[in-house]
Structure formats: C-alpha cells, structure tokens
Amino acid sequence: MPRHLQREIENLKNKIVTMGGEVEDRVYKATLSVIKRDLVMAQAVINADRDIDNLEVDIEEDCLKILALHQPVAIDLRFIIAVLKINSDLERVGDLAVNIAERSVFLASQDEPIDMPFDAVDMSTKVEKMLTQSIDSLVNLDVRLARQVRARDEEIDTINRTMYGQVKGLFQDHPERVNALLHAISICRHLERIADHASNIAEDVIYLVNAEIVRHTPEVFEE
Predict the structure, then answer these.
(1) Domain limits at 162?
(2) Which helix (H) or strand (E) holds 151?
(3) Rounded Cα distance, 204 and 138, in Å
(4) Eight-class DSSP state of 116
(5) What is the spatial distance between Cα 136 and Cα 202, in angstroms, rounded to a whole number?
(6) Helix (H) or strand (E) holding 84
(7) Is residue 219 domain-resident?
(8) How confident is the prediction along the chain (223 residues), in pLDDT tens digits per residue?
(9) Main-chain dihedrals φ then ψ at residue 213, nearest 5 degrees
C-alpha cells in the first residue's frame, strides 16, 4: 500500500473509532438519564446531536476522497466500504440515543415515576455491551467477537417482544398512564434498534476481514 494511502486509511480508522466512542457515550448517558430520571443529562444528549452529525459528514467526505484519489482495491476497498456503512449505522445510533433522551425528558417530568414495562437496566446494559463489542471488533478486526455480537441480537429481540405482551395488561390496569407507557415502549424499541445497528456493524467487520457477506444469515453463539 502506498504510504500516503496508508496514512489516510489510518486517519480514517481513528475518526470512525472516535465516532464510535462518542456514540457509545451518548447511549450510556441517554439510558442512564432514564434510570435516574435525570433531566440535565438527557438534555445534554439532545444538545450534542449536531456533533455526531458533523462527524458523520466529515468521515463520509474522507471516504469519498480516498476512493476518488487512490482507487483502493482488495482489503483497502473493503475497509472504505465498511467504514461508509458503519459511519451511517453509528449516526443512526446517535439519533436513537437522542430519541431515548427525549422520552427520558417526558418521563422525568411526570409527578410519579412509571414502572417500566421491561428491565431498563438489564436491557440497556446488554445493548451497550453489544455496541461496545461491535466497535472493539472493528478496532481489532476480531471476527469471532463480531459473530458473538450478531448472536446476541436475538436476545434483545426477545426482550422487546416480551415487553409488548406485558404492556397490554398495563394499559388496562393504568389507563391514566397511557402516554407515559407509550414513551416507555418507545425506549425499549429504540434500544432494540441500537442492537440491530450494532449487529450491522459486526456484519461489516466480518465482510471487511473475510470478504464474507453474512447479512440474513443466522449466527450461533459459541463461548
């Protein structure tokens, strides 16, 4: 690989890892604001959304510049393609963190705290771990870790499906709290979508390393 191309790819890798760290922090703070009913923390996540948007545009422009100027091939080309897709997934995760924070603001403003129709601590912890490991798999080009992330996605889907069953009874028992329950349902759904994006990132890492497209293929978890 020419030295200047290698330098630009390393710079791009540093940027996508930085973005991953920023997005991880947003998700952590958004979910923590729900658990602690922290209006200030939730609002901080909402206010910082533009930073993620700007970083996404910067990374995309870098990718397009490298493609145009260097016409990379083989693994270098796969890296650029993977970064373009991961960049988009991370930006969407940032948006979902903002959505969670907005729901958190509403719930924290209620006179009485609502009993969440799912275990928010457990689900958010599992989702945050998936997101962290998906980014780690990119940093270390770790296909085994990426496959583990994909396998964990079904667990989050199950939590989401179970929550919908439980909430039916809550609507009947607490009709006066329908709006708050709808916000709680949205938080669960947003967490499930973050897990989907983490799984997408893991799929892109597998493609990057092995040139293997695993989308729509079930993953079996192995310790």
Answers:
(1) 3-210
(2) helix 143-173
(3) 9
(4) P
(5) 10
(6) helix 74-108
(7) no
(8) 678 888 999 999 999 999 999 999 999 999 999 999 999 999 999 999 999 999 999 999 999 999 999 989 999 999 999 999 999 999 999 999 999 999 999 999 888 887 787 888 999 999 999 999 999 999 999 999 999 999 999 999 999 888 887 777 777 777 777 888 899 899 999 999 999 999 999 999 999 999 998 887 877 655 5
(9) -95, 115
Domain annotation covers residue 220:
no
**Residue 18 half-sphere exposure toward CB, CA atoms < 13 A:** 13
Task: Count CA atoms within 13 Å of residue 174 on its CB side.
Answer: 15
Distance CA 134, CA 93 (A): 13
Within a domain: 12? yes
Q: Name residue, tokens 């939730």.
A: 42
Domain count, the chain: 1
CATH of the domain at 104: 1.20.58.220
